[in-house]
Specification:
It comes from Psychroflexus gondwanensis ACAM 44. Keywords: Membrane, Transmembrane, Transmembrane helix. By secondary structure, the protein is mainly α. Helices cover about 85% and strands about 0% of the residues.
């Protein structure tokens, strides 16, 4: 029973760490999405093909 609780604790700690890392870099992902949308809009305004 102790090994099961230890494994459960390790899994929860790992999931928490992954969630914390993604939360911390979440603003970078949003910034990149905004830059991509601006670049696509700029190409459309200039009259070039988007993709």
């Amino acid at each position: 029973m102790g090994n099961l609780l230890y494994a459960f604790a390790v899994i929860l700690l790992t999931l928490w760490a992954i969630g914390f890392i993604f939360y911390a870099i979440g603003w970078v992902i949003h910034l990149l999405l905004i830059v991509a949308v601006i670049a696509i809009a700029y190409r459309i305004v200039k009259g070039r093909k988007c993709l």
